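Here is one record:
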Amino acid sequence: MKLLKILALVVATSAYAQSGDEAIKELNRKINILADEIEALKTNQTQITDNEALTVYGLGRSGSKVYKIDKGVSIGGYGEVIYKNKRSELQNGQKSSGGTNPVSDALRNVIYVGYKFNQNWVFNSEIEIEHADEVFAEFAYLDYLHSDALNARFGLILAPMGFINELHEATTFLSVNRPDIESKIIPSTWRENGLGIFGSKAGFEYRLYLMNGLNAASFTSDGVRGGRKKGTTAESGDLAWTGRLDYVGMSNLLVGVSAYVGSASGTASKVDHNIYDFHLDYKIKGIQTRFLYVHSTVDAEKLNQDLGLTGSNGVGEELTGWYWEVGYNVLHNFNTNNKLIPFARYETYDTQAEASTGLTRDASKERENITLGLVYQPIERISFKFDYIIGKNEAETGTDSWNLGMGWNF
C-alpha cells in the first residue's frame, strides 16, 4: 500500500501544471511527503531484518523465517564443511587401525522452504543434502496457528529432545561436530511422522507429539541412532509420545525437560523405549553455558535374543550421559559485532550403562570426551571453528582428534 501511495504522489507531482510560488510550495510539500514514505519503508525493512534474529517454536533463525512474513514463500538455509584428523595412537599407546584419515566433508547443505497461506495455516520444510550426494527431508509439516497458547502440527516432525535435534544449524553450537550424546542416545537429527500440539503461556513453551516409534532391529551396543525411520515408508504399528516443557521467561535463559515414551518396532518382541532429558542454556555478559543430562531405557533382553546378540554386543538396557559446556566471547566489551569464543566441554556417557541378563558390558562404550576449541564469528550468521578432542574410554582404546569447520545460515 505504501508503494502505491508513493507512485500516486509521483504521478500527481509530474502532472502538476500550476506556476508561481504556490506551485513550488505544493511541489515541496509533496516531495517531503515522498521522502517521509521512503524513510518509513526503510525503517520497516530494518525492523524486519532485525526480527529475523528471533526464533520461534524451538527452530533456528532460518527455519523460523516463514512465521514472520504476512503471506507467501519463505526461503532460508544453512550448511557446514568440516575437516577431521584423528591421531594414529590410541589411549593405550597402540596404533589405531581406523579407516580413512584425515577426512574432509561437505557435511550439510540445507534449504528451508516454507509457505504461509494465511495467518492460520503454514507449511514449513527442511531439505538436506548430506556429504554432497545424499538428499533427505529433515522435516515437512503443516501448522495450524490458533493462538500463542495452542497450535497444531501435522507431518514429518522433529522430536523435541535435547538441544541439537530442533536447533541444529552449525552456527548454534560451538564445536565442529555435534556432541556424541545427541547422536547415540538422542538420535539427532531425529524426525518421524506424527501430529501434536505446541504453544507458549506465562513464560513457558511446550510441544507434545504422537509419533512413529523407532526401529529396534537397528539398535546396537553403540546406541539407537540407527533406529530412525526418517518418515520413509515407516512401519506405524508402534507409536510413542514425545514432549518438551521449557521455561523462557528470563532473558537469555532456557531451562526445561523433555521425554520420549513408547515402543519400537521391527522385531518379533515389543520393545519399550524411553528417553528423558534435563537441559539448561544460559548467556550473560559474553559468557554462554550449556548443560544436558540424558537417561534412556530399552527393554533389551528379548530384543537381544531376537537379534541374536551375545556377549558384549548386546543393546544396553540403560543408556545415560551428560555434558557441560562453557564459552566466553573475549570481544564482548569491544565495540564490534565480531565474536571470538574460546570454549571447553566435558562429556561423559555410556551406551551400555546396564547390560541384559547373561550379557557383559563392553568397557569401550563408557566414554569421556574433553573438547577444547575456538570459534570466530565475523557476523552472527557465519562461524569458523577449531577444536581438539581428548577421547577416552574404560577399555583405553580412545583416540584424540583435531577438527576444523565452517558454518553459515541465512
